[in-house]
Design a protein that fits this description.
elongated; 7-stranded mixed β-sheet; alpha+beta
Length: about 850
C-alpha cells in the first residue's frame, strides 16, 4: 500500500498542470457554492443594517393610526409589561423644512432624550458645543447634512415645522453612523423631545413608542399583549422576517440557478479528467493487478487521488468564497447608500456544507470512470485492448428529443405548487439534451465542411479530425453550456428589470402625495395647484385576512370605476370595462393571477374577508396581472372598501402634472408644508428600481464569467491531453510533408470550427433556457413576456470562438515544437 500511495503522490506531482486545473475547478465551484449559501444572509443583514438606522435595537413600534382615538400615544399601558420588555422609549417624529432662496431641504425630525437615543441607537459626535444640557432649540445633525446646509457647531439653522419657522443652534455634528446614516435625500435631525413636542402642539406627549423585549424569543407573545393594550393603535415589528426574505429571496434564487450550472460543469470537467487519468494509468494498473493488487485496492488509490483534489480545492475555495462574498455584497449595495457598512455574514455550517460539496463533487465525479476499471480483465489491460469505441446508438437521440419536448411542455403545464421545481428540472433537461446532440452536430458539420469544393486540404483535414474526437466533443459541450448559461443570465437580468419596472408601467401618473388624515378636500386643493392636471385619491388596506382560506391578501385597493383606468393600467384577464363595472354590483372582487394560482382561487369562489364590520363575503369575478406587493393584490369597489373597513382618509393621492413635474412636486411640498406632505416622484422611483436590479445582475454576470473561466480551464486540459493522444498522428502528418506552420494552422482551424459550433449550440441551448425563465419568474411573483435579443447572438458566437482559440494557444505552441522521432516513439 505504501508503494501505491507513493506512486499516487508522484503522479500528482508530475502532472502539475492537470492537478492545478482540477483544483482550480473545485476551488471556483466551492467559492461560488459558498457565496450562494451565504449571500442571502449577507443581503438580509445589509437590509437589517439599513433599517436599523430608523429603529436601532427596537423590535416593536407603536404609533397612532388614522382611526386612533388620539394623535398621541402613551407609554403607560406598555409599562405594565416591565418584566417582559427591556425598554419603552417615547419620542416625537415630525417633518421639517430648511428653505433657502432656490432650494428646499426636507428634514426628518426626531424628538428624543439623548440617553434614550444612546440606548436604542448609539451615535458618535465628531464635534459638539454646549451639549451639557440638551434642551431648548438645540439640534444634532450628521456631517452630510452639515455640509449640505453649509453650517457648523454653534451656527443657527432655520427650520420650518408645521408652517412655523424657528431657528435652532447646531449643538453637535455626528458621524454618519446609526440614526445618522443618510441615504439619498434623507437628512436626519435630532432635537430635545419636549422642544419638538411643544413646537408641534404635542406638548409633553409622544407620537411613537419604541420597544425592545427582554427576550427575543418572547417577542410574539409581547406583540399580542401590546396589541390588546393598544387595540386602536398600530403595533408592528420594526423589521420582519418576511421583509428580509423579500429583500434577498429573488437574488438568492438566481444565484442558486447559476451555482447549479457551475456544479454541473465542474462535475463534467472532473469526470472527463478522471477518464483520462484512468486511461493513462492503465499500464500501471495492469502491473499492480498482475502483482496481486485487488480491484478494491486500485480503486482506493484513485479515490484517494480525487479526495486529495477535493480537500485541497475545497480549502482554497472557502478562502476565495469569502472574498467573492465581500465583492458581491459591495456590488449589491443599493444606490445612494454609500455610507452603509457592508458586513459579510456566514455560519460554520455554511463553511462545512461548501467544503463537503467540494469533496463530494470531486469524489463522486470520479466514481464512474474509476468503477469502469473493475470490468476490464487484466489480460486486456496488459495487451492494451481495453479501448473500444462503442457503437453509436440512435436511441439516445430519441431521448434527447424527448427531453427537449418535455422542457418545452412542462413549464406551462406544471401545477403552481411544484412549478419552480419542475422549471429547474427542465433547465437540466435542456443541458442534458445539448450533451446528447452536440456530437451529432459536430459530425454533421465535419461532414458538410469536408465536402465543400475548393476548400483547402488543411481545412478539410481539420474538419475531418473533429469527427469522433471525444476531446473535441467534450470541449464543445463545455463551451456550449457556458455560452447558454451566460446568455441565460444576461437575458434573465433584462427580464427581471423589465418585471420590476412593470409596476410603474401600471401607474399612469407622475407623482404620489401622502399626507396624514387627508380626504377629498385635500384632493380638491391639489387639483387647484398650478401645474397639477388632475388628482385621484386612493384607499388601500393591507394584510386583509381571508377567513375561509387561512391566508391573507397583502393589499386590497378601492376602485373608483369612473377614474381608476385613467391612473392605473392593470392587465385584466378579460374585458377590463366589464370587470370594473361589475365591481359596483354587490360585493365582488378581482384578484391577481399570481394570488389566484398560489391560493387555488377560481372565478365564482367566495372570499370571506375579515373587515371592521365583521366577515364579508366577496365573489371573485376575474383576475389581473400586477407585481405590486409581489403580486399579492386585489381590487374591490371604493364604496365597499370604505364601508367595510370604515375608512375616512385616503392612503395617498395620485397626481398628473403638466410641464415640469419636479417643480410641481416642490411647489406642493412648500405650499402644503403644514400638512407635511411626502411627495414621491414616479420617474425617480422607476430609475432607482432599474438601477438597483441592474446592479444586482452585474453580480450574476460576474458569476457567468467565472463559469466561462471554469470552462476555459477544462478545455485547456482536454486540448493538452488531446495533443498527447494525437502525437503519433501529428508525426504522420509531418512525415508526409506537412510543415510546422501548417500543423499549427490545422490545430487553430479545429479550434475555430469548434468555437463556432460551441457558440451556435450555446445560443440554441440558451434560447431554450430563456423560454423557461418567464415560468421561473412567474413562480416567484414576476410576470414577464419572453424577449429574444437575436441581434446580439453573434456576440456569443464570437465569444465562444475567442474562448476556444485562447484555450488552443498552448497546444498549438506545443504542436509546432515537438519532435517527429520522439512522437513516433511515444506510447
Amino acid at each position: 500500500m505504501r508503494i501505491i500511495l507513493k506512486y499516487l503522490l508522484n503522479n500528482i506531482r508530475e502532472k502539475k498542470f492537470r492537478s492545478v486545473i482540477l483544483m482550480l475547478t473545485i476551488l471556483l465551484s466551492t467559492a461560488l457554492v459558498f457565496s450562494s449559501l451565504t449571500i442571502s444572509d449577507t443581503l438580509g443583514r445589509m437590509y437589517v443594517e439599513q433599517m436599523r438606522k430608523y429603529y436601532g435595537s427596537a423590535e416593536i413600534m407603536v404609533s397612532p393610526k388614522r382611526d386612533s382615538p388620539s394623535p398621541f400615544v402613551s407609554e403607560r399601558p406598555a409599562s405594565k409589561l416591565s418584566g417582559e420588555v427591556e425598554y419603552v422609549i417615547d419620542a416625537v417624529q415630525k417633518t421639517g423644512f430648511h428653505k433657502e432662496k432656490n432650494r428646499t431641504t426636507k428634514l426628518q425630525l426626531l424628538g428624543i432624550d439623548l440617553m434614550d437615543l444612546r440606548l436604542m441607537n448609539p451615535y458618535e459626535l465628531l464635534e459638539s458645543k454646549n451639549m451639557g444640557s440638551f434642551k431648548g432649540n438645540k439640534i444634532i445633525i450628521s456631517s452630510k447634512t452639515a455640509e449640505l446646509l453649509n453650517c457648523g457647531v454653534g451656527d443657527a439653522v432655520p427650520i420650518e415645522i408645521d408652517g412655523k419657522k424657528q431657528k435652532f443652534s447646531v449643538a453637535g455634528i455626528a458621524r454618519p453612523f446609526g440614526y445618522f446614516v443618510e441615504f439619498g435625500d434623507e437628512h436626519m435631525v435630532v432635537m430635545p423631545k419636549q422642544s419638538l413636542g411643544a413646537l408641534s402642539g404635542i406638548q409633553r406627549n409622544s407620537n411613537v413608542l419604541y420597544i425592545k423585549t427582554a427576550d427575543a424569543a418572547e417577542k410574539p407573545a409581547v406583540l399580542d399583549q401590546l396589541r390588546q393594550l393598544y387595540s386602536r393603535y398600530s403595533v408592528e415589528e420594526t423589521i420582519t422576517d418576511e421583509e428580509i426574505k423579500e429583500y434577498s429571496g429573488r437574488i438568492q434564487m438566481a444565484f442558486s440557478l447559476v451555482v447549479t450550472a457551475v456544479l454541473f460543469m465542474s462535475v463534467f470537467i472532473i469526470y472527463t479528467a478522471f477518464k483520462i487519468i484512468v486511461i493513462e494509468r492503465m499500464p500501471a494498473i495492469g502491473t499492480l493487478r498482475s502483482l496481486g493488487a485487488t480491484n478494491r485496492m486500485v480503486s482506493l488509490v484513485l479515490y484517494l487521488e480525487s479526495l486529495l483534489y477535493g480537500l485541497a480545492g475545497g480549502a482554497l475555495g472557502l478562502f476565495s468564497g469569502i472574498g467573492i462574498l465581500h465583492l458581491l455584497a459591495l456590488m449589491a449595495k443599493p444606490p445612494g447608500m454609500e455610507t452603509l457598512t457592508v458586513t459579510v455574514t456566514f455560519a460554520g455550517w455554511q463553511l462545512l456544507a461548501a467544503f463537503l460539496v467540494a469533496v463530494l463533487t470531486s469524489v463522486l465525479s470520479a466514481a464512474v470512470p474509476i468503477r469502469k476499471v473493475h470490468k476490464i480483465p487484466i489480460k486486456d489491460i496488459v495487451l492494451n485492448q481495453f479501448q473500444h469505441e462503442k457503437e453509436q446508438r440512435k436511441i439516445k437521440y430519441v431521448f434527447g428529443a424527448a427531453m427537449l419536448g418535455l422542457a418545452l411542455f412542462l413549464p406551462g403545464a406544471a401545477p403552481f405548487g411544484i412549478a419552480l421545481l419542475v422549471d429547474m428540472l427542465c433547465i437540466f433537461l435542456v443541458v442534458f439534451a445539448m450533451i446528447i446532440f452536440i456530437p451529432l452536430l459536430v459530425g454533421l458539420t465535419s461532414h458538410g465542411l469536408s465536402r465543400i469544393p475548393n476548400l483547402s486540404n488543411i481545412c478539410k483535414i481539420s474538419a475531418k479530425n473533429l469527427r469522433g474526437n471525444k476531446s473535441a466533443n467534450t470541449n464543445i459541450c463545455l463551451l456550449a453550456i457556458s455560452i447558454s448559461v451566460l446568455l441565460l443570465m444576461n437575458s434573465t437580468g433584462g427580464l427581471v428589470v423589465e418585471a420590476a419596472t412593470n409596476l410603474f408601467r401600471d401607474m399612469k401618473f407622475d407623482a404620489q402625495v401622502t399626507v396624514d388624515k387627508t380626504g377629498r378636500s385635500f384632493e380638491r386643493l391639489l387639483k387647484g395647484t398650478s401645474g397639477v392636471e388632475s388628482a385621484y385619491g386612493v384607499y388601500d388596506c393591507y394584510n386583509v385576512e381571508i377567513l375561509n382560506s387561512g391566508t391573507s391578501i397583502p393589499l386590497v385597493r378601492g376602485v373608483d370605476t369612473a377614474r381608476f383606468d385613467n391612473y392605473y393600467e392593470f392587465f385584466l384577464k378579460g374585458e377590463p370595462v366589464d370587470y370594473l363595472d361589475r365591481l359596483n354590483e354587490g360585493r365582488t372582487i378581482v384578484v391577481t393571477d399570481f394570488l389566484a394560482r398560489t391560493s387555488g382561487f377560481s372565478i365564482g369562489d367566495e372570499l370571506v374577508l375579515k373587515t371592521e364590520r365583521g366577515a364579508q363575503a366577496y365573489e371573485i369575478i376575474g383576475f389581473f396581472d400586477s407585481i405590486e406587493q409581489l403580486g399579492g393584490m386585489a381590487l374591490i369597489s371604493e364604496k365597499n372598501l370604505k364601508t367595510d373597513m370604515k375608512l375616512d382618509y385616503y392612503t395617498a393621492v395620485n397626481i398628473k402634472t403638466t410641464g415640469d413635474s419636479l417643480a410641481v412636486q416642490k411647489s406642493i411640498e412648500e405650499k402644503y408644508s403644514v400638512q407635511n406632505p411626502v411627495v414621491s416622484d414616479m420617474a425617480k422611483m422607476r430609475e432607482d428600481t432599474i438601477q438597483a436590479n441592474k446592479q444586482l445582475f452585474v453580480v450574476l454576470t460576474l458569476f457567468s464569467i467565472l463559469i466561462l473561466a471554469i470552462s476555459l480551464i477544462g478545455m485547456i486540459n482536454n486540448l493538452i491531453v488531446s495533443f498527447l493522444e494525437r502525437r503519433r498522428s501529428f508525426a504522420m502528418y509531418r512525415s508526409v510533408g506537412m510543415n510546422k506552420r501548417q500543423l499549427a494552422n490545422m490545430v487553430m482551424l479545429e479550434s475555430i470550427v469548434s468555437g463556432l459550433i460551441g457558440g451556435c449550440a450555446g445560443v440554441a441551448g440558451g434560447t431554450f433556457l430563456i423560454g423557461i425563465v418567464p415560468y421561473v419568474l412567474e413562480a416567484t411573483g414576476f410576470v414577464v413576456s419572453i424577449k429574444y435579443d437575436f441581434a446580439t447572438y453573434w456576440i456569443y458566437v464570437v465569444l465562444g470562438t475567442a474562448v476556444m482559440l485562447a484555450a488552443s494557444i498552448a497546444p498549438s505552441i506545443k504542436t509546432s515544437k515537438f519532435s517527429i522521432i520522439d512522437a513516433l516513439k511515444y506510447e
